[in-house]
Amino acid sequence: MITARNIRRRIGGLEDISLEVPAGACTAIIGPNGAGKSTLLDLLAGRSRADSGAVEFGGQPIADWAPLDLARRRAFLPQSLEVAFPIRVMDLVMLGRSPYHGRVSAQEDRAAAETALRLTDAWHLRDRAYQRISGGERQRVQLARVIAQIWRPGSQDGEPRMLLLDEPTASLDPGHRLAVMRLLRDLAIAGIGVVLALHDLNDAARFADQVVLLHQGRILSEGGPADAMQAEVLTSAYGAEAEVIRAGDAAPVIVFR
Ligand SMILES: Nc1ncnc2c1ncn2[C@@H]1O[C@H](COP(=O)(O)OP(=O)(O)OP(=O)(O)O)[C@@H](O)[C@H]1O
Question: For the structural domain made of 2-256, what CATH number should be given?
Answer without folding.
Answer: 3.40.50.300
